[in-house]
Amino acid sequence: MNGSAGSVGPMRVLVTGGSGLVGRAIEHVIKEESGAREEETWIFLSSKDANLMSAEETRAVFQKHRPTHVIHLAAMVGGLFRNMRQNLDFWRNNVFINDNVLQAAHEFDVVKVVSCLSTCIFPDKTTYPIDETMIHSGPPHETNFGYAYAKRMIDVQNRALFQQYGRRYTAVIPTNVFGPHDNFNIENGHVLPGLIHKTYLAKKEGKPLQVWGSGRALRQFIYSLDLARLFLWVLREYDEVEPIILSVGEEDEVSIKFAADAVVEALGFEGDVIFDTSKADGQFKKTASNAKLRKYLPDFEFTPFRAAIKETCDWFVANYDSARK
């Protein structure tokens, strides 16, 4: 193994946000797909273990576990409509969390941190496809500027840590993630889990399915288990400070209507589907390039969209009572 990730002895990996969608997927790959290597210890933190908005609690949890590596997933997150209402909260809470985690990692001599950004941090007015060099080249979409700027600051801090201390901390930028253990809340969740929950209820109640927006907006979706496998590669092999987009290709971008059709099929919903055009579509598209990822991993195979939707819907039905919603 090359690069800084290979130069340490036993790896102790601390995962913040370990009980969320991506954290659970990484845990699944580590435990069920024997993704862990010998001499690796994995610690998955949830908000119950430490309030990362507190510098003291963050330091205490690093003191306790003494990680050599960190995957930083913890964030205050929400869908379009919650972001529009709470930009200040999204800015402050995420700035505190990110600064506390990156500073504690530096103080405790963590070899590598991989943080998780989001494609919504990219400039609103831009050319497509978006790539890694364009993060700071214009203001983000006004609906979620608080969250977007807070996430962009991770990249600023990583570059400064590298310049001043030679730290190789980096970040990944996934497109829309979905999968088991998502937040299926209809009001505050993201588009796909919200659709899955709504379709489930519409089927149960024998009512039409109401999809928010026109259905024409385009998105690239990545299955959480695919993302987890890529996270492990970034942690062990990717040696740049500059972020890397983790996404399916541009050709795999789908409309919300196509996604809704896949959910309807997976859940066996046979009622009417109505698109409520009085609701916002958000950004029409955010097409991201995965050329950099493909340069490193030309042969990585993504789970086909419909198969991943089916697995997610089956999980939701089986875990309906305990799922976040």
UniProtKB/TrEMBL annotation:
Pfam families tied to this protein: Epimerase
EC number: 1.1.1.271
Keyword Cell wall biogenesis/degradation: no
GO biological process terms held by the UniProt record: 'de novo' GDP-L-fucose biosynthetic process
GO terms assigned for molecular function: GDP-L-fucose synthase activity; isomerase activity
Functional pathway: Nucleotide-sugar biosynthesis; GDP-L-fucose biosynthesis via de novo pathway; GDP-L-fucose from GDP-alpha-D-mannose: step 2/2
Lineage top rank: taxon: Eukaryota
Keywords: Isomerase, NADP, Oxidoreductase
Domain NAD-dependent epimerase/dehydratase: 13-249
Enzyme class: oxidoreductase
InterPro entries, per database record: Epimerase_deHydtase, GDP_fucose/colitose_synth, NAD(P)-bd_dom_sf
Family as reported in the entry's similarity comment: Belongs to the NAD(P)-dependent epimerase/dehydratase family. Fucose synthase subfamily.
Function: Catalyzes the two-step NADP-dependent conversion of GDP-4-dehydro-6-deoxy-D-mannose to GDP-fucose, involving an epimerase and a reductase reaction.
Name of the protein: GDP-L-fucose synthase
UniProt source species: Carassius auratus
